[in-house]
Amino acid sequence: MKTIKEEKINEVILKKSKFISIIKQINSIDDFKLFLDDIKNKYPNATHYCYAFVINNLEKANDDGEPSNTAGLPILNTLKNNDLKNVACIVVRYYGGVKLGTGGLIRAYRKGAGEVIKNNVIELFEMEELTIEFDYEDSKDMFFILDKYNAIIKEKEFDEKIKVRFEIIKEEVKNLKKELLKATII
Fold this sequence. Notes:
Layout: E1 2-4, E2 8-14, E3 17-25, H1 29-42, E4 48-55, E5 58-62, H2 72-81, E6 87-94, H3 101-117, E7 121-123, E8 127-134, H4 139-148, E9 152-158, E10 162-169, H5 173-185
Antiparallel strand pairs: 1-7, 2-3, 3-6, 4-5, 4-6, 8-10, 9-10
C-alpha cells in the first residue's frame, strides 16, 4: 500500500484560470470533511472545489459544478494509478474567463493531481508484533539479528531470560524466525 509523505500544494495558471492542487493523507470521512472545510476557508470565492479521495476501499470523486467527469474522475484516476490509499486531493479552481473545453479540463485536473503526487509517495508496510525470549549468552546474536531485520523494539524485560517485544515487516517474519532459531541452536 502506498500513501503520500506530506501535504503538498501546487499552483498552475492555465488560460487565465488558476488551479491550486492540495493533497493530504486522511484516515476517515471526518478527516476529509475537515480538510475540505479548511481548503474552502483558505481559498474563499473559488469557482470550484473539485476532489477525489481513497480511504481504504472507499473511493469518491466530485466535479463540484464542472462538466460531468472532467474534474473529480481525473483526480481519482490519478490517485488510483499511483496505488494511493488514505489520501485526498482537492483542486481549487478560480475561473479566468476562458473556457477550456472538456479535454482541457480533464488535462488540467489530472495534471494538478499529478503534480502534488510527484516525488511524494511512500510505501507502507504491514507490520507484525512478536515477542521472543532468550538466554543472556545469546543476546549479542539476537539483537544483531533484530537490528538486521530493522525490528522496532517496543519493550525489553531482563529477568532470568531476556524478553523482547518488537514489530517487524510482516513479509520478513518467516526469514527472521528461521535466523533466530538458527542462532539459538548453534
